[in-house]
Design brief:
303 residues; alpha/beta; TIM Barrel; six-stranded parallel β-sheet; three-stranded antiparallel β-sheet; 13 helices; 11 strands; 35% helix
């Protein structure tokens, strides 16, 4: 029985010098991923540690599940409809690295926003305080009363018409004004938070990046879309390309376009995984993210 020959040796015996299959776009995507920084909001999150088998998002303080927007992709809406939205309160632990206000609903609706902000600052003086908001209710007067280290303002369209289509609220001008307010305040890290929805807003993403940068915003946090079952029909009607929404390559290409205008970053837990992939896997992989209902995986703690 003859010895088995390696494929490289067989190729050479036939007069062909073997070459490893390469893909220029795949190499560019890999280099882009390796050069990206983790989002400021994600710093300190357990999801960056791939050795942790059950990571959870850093703590949050939930004020209300109510919102003045009705976004076609929103997980908070789904949680409310299914009775899964968290009750108001602190979901986390002692000595947190960071606290988000909040992950569900629109926190600026609550008349307690200033009170809770101060309470968290006093109770957790070493924690980074992140405000996550749609921005439509943020005014100069309110901003002067708040004390956050980082502000994420959601914007998924570059025009009033598209914004109305996605949010079902005619608040585009107010959101842009909120970006201007936080962009002008260099004592806080300002972030525009955008969801990648190909077929709906992929052409808007670089325009949002350019607009935010012109307003002094520090960073864009571009996030892939998680498709919740109750939102499927709404996303279909709006024109979502489901196949492209699950493509890591398409998502990264959108981030590369936005990078021309602003310091763009992608979800930290995703970036940590993408950095471990070889170029061809990164080029061809799909991210299938579908859920029935989002839930808080942290315990509610009385503070």
């Amino acid at each position: 029985m003859g010895m088995k020959m390696k494929w490289e040796d067989f190729a050479r015996s036939m007069g062909v010098e073997p070459q490893i299959l390469e893909n220029k776009e795949a190499r560019l995507l890999k280099q882009f991923v390796m050069d990206l920084k983790f989002p400021t909001h994600c710093q300190g999150c357990q999801g960056l540690d791939l050795s942790n088998p059950n990571p959870v998002h850093h703590p949050s303080y939930e004020l209300t599940p109510d919102c003045n927007h009705d976004c076609i992709f929103c997980y908070s809406n789904v949680a409310v409809k299914l009775g899964k939205a968290p009750r108001p309160g602190y979901y986390g632990w002692e000595n947190p690295y960071a606290i988000t206000v909040s992950q569900y609903g629109e926190p600026l609706i609550s008349p307690r926003i200033g009170e809770v902000n101060k309470m968290l600052r006093d109770r957790f003086p070493n924690a980074r305080l992140d405000l996550q908001t749609n921005g439509s209710l943020l005014t100069e007067e309110l901003w002067e009363k708040l004390d956050f280290d980082l502000v994420m303002i959601s914007l998924d369209a570059a025009s009033r018409e598209k914004h109305l289509k996605i949010t079902n609220a005619d608040t585009f001008g107010a959101v842009v004004n909120a970006l201007r307010i936080v962009g002008n305040d260099k004592s806080v890290r300002s972030v525009v938070r955008t969801i990648f929805m190909p077929g709906i807003n992929d052409e808007d993403i670089p325009k949002i990046a350019e607009l935010a940068a012109s307003l002094g915003v520090d960073e864009m946090m571009l996030q892939p879309l998680t498709i919740h079952e109750l939102n499927v029909e709404r996303l279909k009607r709006a024109g979502l390309n489901f196949e492209r929404a699950e493509s890591i390559r398409e998502f990264l290409k959108a981030a590369m376009e936005a990078k021309k205008y602003i310091d763009v970053r992608i979800s930290g837990c995703q970036l940590a995984i993408y950095r471990t992939m070889d170029p061809l896997t990164l080029f061809s992989a799909k991210r299938v993210a579908r859920e029935v209902a989002p839930i808080v995986k942290r315990d509610r703690l009385s503070i």
